[in-house]
């Protein structure tokens, strides 16, 4: 490794970035950061035909329990985030909670993921990945009856812990 242009934890513009002083991509050095309890909550929505939502809620999908399988997939996605997102740190997650809430008025399902760790970097990416994988799994399990499903409003709602402190979204995702 060429270390002459590398400053641990410092990017080319003086902050934590994924670029070294030579402008090359690298994984940010978080070695000097304190381990703290870190939490992130993310959410997203998948819209579908009312008849598709009825199939999901009745448990009569040909592929099985859509929401149960999507929950497991979301948890697995959170655990594999560093394998999917370049330069993302592998983290030992201490908790992943995934919930689905059906909204018959908008014919959609809201997926919310809460991810926690005791570590040196946050878990926002893990929460976002969990939501995306959960929604993609719903799509996969229902695409035979509804290829027009739309995933929207994926975003971080809350972040707690770490040097930058706590953060909450100003508004809830559109419904």
Automatic annotation (TrEMBL):
Positions contributing to substrate binding: 87-89, 125-126
Domain of life: Bacteria
Residues forming the catalytic site: 140
Catalytic reaction list: (8S)-3',8-cyclo-7,8-dihydroguanosine 5'-triphosphate = cyclic pyranopterin phosphate + diphosphate
EC number: 4.6.1.17
Any single Pfam family the record assigns to this protein: MoaC
GO MF assignments: cyclic pyranopterin monophosphate synthase activity
Signal peptide: none
Keywords attached to this entry: Lyase, Molybdenum cofactor biosynthesis
Ranges of residues in domain Molybdopterin cofactor biosynthesis C (MoaC): 27-162
Pathway it works in: Cofactor biosynthesis; molybdopterin biosynthesis
InterPro entries assigned: MoaC (IPR023045), MoaC_bact/euk (IPR047594), MoaC_sf (IPR036522), MoCo_biosynth_MoaA/MoaC (IPR050105), Mopterin_CF_biosynth-C_dom (IPR002820)
Known function: Catalyzes the conversion of (8S)-3',8-cyclo-7,8-dihydroguanosine 5'-triphosphate to cyclic pyranopterin monophosphate (cPMP).
Protein family: Belongs to the MoaC family.
Quaternary structure and interacting proteins, as annotated: Homohexamer; trimer of dimers.
HAMAP family: MoaC_B
Protein name: Cyclic pyranopterin monophosphate synthase
Gene name, Swiss-Prot/TrEMBL: moaC
